[in-house]
Amino acid sequence: MFVCSTLEKIMDIKEYMQSVGRQARAASRRLATASTAEKNAALLAIAAAIRREKAALVAANQEDLAAARAAGLEAAMLDRLTLSEKGVDSMAEGVEQVASAAERHRRCGSALPEIRQRRHPARWFGSHPLESCHCRTGAGRPANRRPAG
User: Fold this and answer.
1) Are residues 78 and 108 in the same domain?
2) pTM of the entire structure?
């Protein structure tokens, strides 16, 4: 009985992941043709939804933490998985910063290399994602580079 239940869960997960993959592929095609204004509107809607659902996100995280504790997860991992209201606010702020950074870059014609090169974008939520951007400094070059010569 346990084996059948486990196999059903695995198949459900496999089907779910395939569905998520198909949806992501469709979304990426749409995103590739979206204007900057459309992308920024979507990002701002995401930030608003994060703020609006803050209590639900924190409550769901508490349930996940309880299950993780029951499963014997180490305290250090539990700490890393804990989501506070301040953490939710930082996520929303980070999404808003991406929208505003994209608009600044669109106006100056610059690319967004710092965003594309980040391996863990969640780690910079709550801080400015483009600290070395020349759009932010107003100079004609990135702030962290010396002039040639």
Assistant:
1) no
2) 0.61
